[in-house]
Amino acid sequence: MTTLNNSTPPEPTVARKLSAARHSRIIIASAIFLGIFALGAAAVAPLAPDASDLPVKQITEQLDVPTLAAQMQAIEERNDVFMHEENVRRGDTLGSLMQRLGVDDDAADRFIKSDKTAKLVIQQKAGSTVRARTSEDGELQWLETYFSVNQDKAVRKMTIQRVPGSDTFTAVETTAPLERRLEMRTGNITSSLFAATDAAQIPDAVASQLVDMFSTSIDFKSDLRRGDHFQIEYETFWQNGEMVSTGRVVAGEFNNAGHTYQALWFDEPGNDGSYYGFDGRSMKKAFLRSPIAFTRISSGFSMRIHPISGQWKQHTGVDFAAPMGTPIRASADGVVDVAGPSGGYGNLVVLKHWSNYSTAYGHMSRFAPGMRKGVKVKQGDVIGFVGATGWATGPHLHYEFRVSNKAQDPLKIKVEQPQSLTASELSRFRTAVVDVQHGFALLRPGESPAQVATR
Hints:
Elements: H1 14-44, H2 68-77, E1 81-87, H3 94-100, H4 106-114, E2 129-135, E3 140-147, E4 154-162, E5 169-177, E6 179-188, H5 193-199, H6 204-214, E7 229-239, E8 242-256, E9 259-266, E10 274-276, E11 296-299, E12 303-305, E13 312-314, E14 318-321, E15 327-329, E16 334-341, E17 347-352, E18 357-367, E19 376-377, E20 382-386, E21 396-403, E22 406-408, H7 423-443, E23 452-454
Antiparallel strand pairs: 1-2, 2-3, 3-4, 4-5, 6-7, 6-23, 7-8, 8-9, 9-10, 11-14, 12-13, 14-21, 15-20, 16-17, 16-19, 17-18, 18-20, 18-21, 21-22
């Protein structure tokens, strides 16, 4: 019997030896394959052709180059045109304006001086823009300018056109529609209203409307205080990026001595429109406090010694001292009852208003054009100009307020005010108020540094 010793490891079998040999052959074969692949890639790379070995083909082409003389002739025959734009300057003559525009054309000069339409260019105010196109030697091809804003918020465009190949010109006027914009500005009173509006770059025409808007509530001669401030929204009209006119004041807010006055222009259906407070109440009082802007009372409604007769008698009106030629405005809507010389009153206008009210305006230097009996006027319309006709020692307006043809003190009379907006109109009005109030809030002192907003 044979006994096995378990401490001795068994010999490897034949199968295990064959498996190890096969694994070694696979690794060797893979290494040989990768080596051959790398050598192949290296061998292929240098096979790209050398640029120096590529064939070269030379091409020759004959180009026709013009001579210098031919080039000069082509330039002379090109007939270049030039555009010029200039602003009319104070004291300009036709010659000085044409010179700056590059125009050297006797035929054009003669035409502009002789043609009724073309000569409007000579009458343009300072700052107006004039454009012209000329040839290289200054021959005028055409010229255009805009002028005369009308009530339809359009301007007249005047064009001077040369008839091709001649020294003949035509001049025509056409209507050019304007772009409407709304501008908002604010100002602070430090010395006077117009100083404040100038500092805020508000045109004088707009400033005058601001006075008219609040003239029934504020005496701009005596009521203004340092520190008063205002916000205003108004129309401007533009043509080719240039402002050519201002329009209506749309809304305004004035803080005077701690009291705030607000107004918005509102177009009522079937009416011309007027100003209303933000609460919807009419700003159009029955009668203006004064028929003259920026004036002082030189004589009130009281007993006095007449400056000419020397007699003690009742002064039946109020005298407003003002420079000769100051415009006089109708204090309310009415119809002209008298317009002509009237003894001690001098040149006199009497307006009949509703019910039994009438107003009289004496000592005028002259009447406004078209002022005659039966003509209808609106509150604020100019009816004449301050003078010293009749029994007057100096230029002033004698203003009377009459009830049933009896004189009353115009500074104390109380007249029923116009009605407010109806309920159906208030909805549309309030929507407009909210829009304006938002803009004014941005302009009020301390709330925003912005001085102007355009929308």
